[in-house]
Write a structure and sequence with these properties.
With about 120 residues, the protein is mostly helical. The chain has 5 helices and no strands.
Length: about 120
């Protein structure tokens, strides 16, 4: 049941809903994937400004995951640690740099929580 609730939420947030009906997304969620990639690369390279920006993306992800986990009563990242999740989000963003960060995060959650048959 919890998985079904999460999947319904993910569905309405990310597909089939026109822009006017989509829930409000703020802050780092609306940034393009290309901005996340710059921060990720800076973090990997040890660039101080890149590390700071990467930590902001990680903080945004952690807040979203915490809220969804509390709301659904389940671990929406299925045990994946934040840095591991960000590495997987990077793969998505490499392929779709024009997508927003929120869409990339929701895509990961869909992958980690496939529908039950």
């Amino acid at each position: 049941m919890r998985t079904a609730l999460l999947l319904i939420s993910l569905f309405f947030w990310s597909v089939g809903v026109d822009a006017q009906e989509r829930p409000q997304v703020w802050d780092y969620g609306v940034k393009e994937c290309r901005s996340f990639l710059v921060a990720f690369d800076g973090w990997e390279s040890g660039v101080e400004s890149g590390i700071a920006e990467y930590l902001r993306y990680r903080g945004w992800l952690s807040g979203l995951v915490t809220g969804l986990s509390l709301a659904t009563g389940m671990d929406v990242l299925q045990g994946v640690e934040p840095d591991g999740a960000l590495r997987r989000i990077r793969i998505y963003c490499d392929e779709r740099p024009d997508d927003d960060y929120f869409t990339a995060v929701m895509n990961l959650m869909k992958q980690l929580n496939p529908p039950e048959n």
